[in-house]
């Protein structure tokens, strides 16, 4: 039997290597990545306690929770601990626990069930594309790419500010979101936008931004970043499956990637064990698609973000479930509280999104059938 080849050693590739090795052992699994990861504070990410507990992951800091609001007021304080992790560290940790050695090569093309890298050729049973924003196999196969992206300018700043035990996200009606938290005497600040088109003017600090309130401000480093927050079908095509940013796995609600990618990697590991990649796509859709689409609506209607936060202000119980894209907490809550005019609009957008997703999936199912016949 040929190998299962994972392309990409980010959280998707390493998480899958870990979960898959638990199911089928590590002998037949290969993971390939030329690997050139950034180092330092730009590598920090936040995740929730269930991920840390399940995988026993190392972490750098724990915040009391997350605050949401606009630049005038914080409307929502979510007291759910947020663990700050070093992305490289957790990827390496999961990979080392899978007992699979990383092959430092770059995938170049696919030909008759063989992968060609810059050094070698490998026969495979399955390719799992975890190449993130490189979209390696999706581009080769001319499959659609995710449509909506979070893009931002993130800075590590040295300066004077009151230490805060929360991570803050302040949104404005034009879609501008400012993120900031303090850690080890440094401030991590980011200006974010959400869109189908990158518009750099939308991610520069505003006159009212927190950024301007930092005294004796000195920017230690900054980076431009971008990743998808809308899933795209299909999740499998013939004997190739997609995981992580490679299909837009991060939640449209907050752009949280690590937890949903690790969860999806468990479904995919089971599908590979069953030798049935359709199982992966079907289970993923059953578990996530509805809540992802509902959250996506709020990203297509950015100017009402703050009004939605105000509606949710007194109803934090379901809010955590909602931002994690778990269950229907948000939709039920919103249906009860939103003005009728907004509800009609959202119902329409939901129907439209659902149709687009269903059509694109059927289109690729037909393509697959045509290729095999
Ligand atoms: C600045 C920023 C902040 C974020 N903050 C958070 C957060 O706080 N919490 C959270 O949960 N999520 C956060 N996210 C989202 C989350 O980090 C991503 O969704 C997640 O890391 C994606 O992982 P991945 O494995 O799919 O992709 P990546 O981590 O991008 O890994 C892709 C890998 O594929 C490799 N590759 C590419 N092309 C090839 C090729 N041809 N051959 C072989 N290998 C290849 C690359 O070298 C890379 O190592 C953030 C994202 C960004 C950018």
SS elements, strand count: 18
Number of helices: 10
* Main pleated-sheet profile: 8 strands, mixed
Strand content: 25-35%
CATH homology group of the largest domain: FAD/NAD(P)-binding domain
Q: Count the domains.
A: 3
Description:
This protein has 3 domains: about 5-65 and about 85-145 and about 235-285, FAD/NAD(P)-binding domain (3-Layer(bba) Sandwich); about 150-225, 2-Layer Sandwich (Alpha-Beta Plaits), CATH 3.30.70; about 290-370, no CATH class. About 35% of the residues lie in helices and about 30% in strands. It has 10 helices and 18 strands. Helix 1 packs parallel to helix 3, helix 1 (about 10-25) packs parallel to helix 5 (about 260-275) and helix 5 packs antiparallel against helix 6. Bound molecules: flavin-adenine dinucleotide. Flavin-adenine dinucleotide binds near residues 46, 132 and 154.
Concise structural overview:
The chain is α/β, with parallel strands linked by helices.
Give the SSE layout.
Elements: E1 3-7, H1 11-24, E2 29-32, E3 44-48, H2 49-55, E4 61-63, E5 65-69, E6 74-78, E7 82-86, H3 87-98, E8 102-103, E9 107-111, E10 114-117, E11 121-129, H4 136-140, E12 149-160, E13 166-171, E14 177-183, E15 186-195, E16 215-228, E17 236-237, E18 240-242, H5 258-273, H6 277-300, H7 305-312, H8 319-323, H9 329-337, H10 340-372
Parallel strand pairs: 1-2, 1-11, 2-8, 5-13, 11-18
Antiparallel strand pairs: 3-7, 4-7, 5-6, 9-10, 10-11, 12-15, 12-16, 13-14, 14-15, 17-18
Helix pairs in contact: 1-3, 1-5, 5-6, 6-10
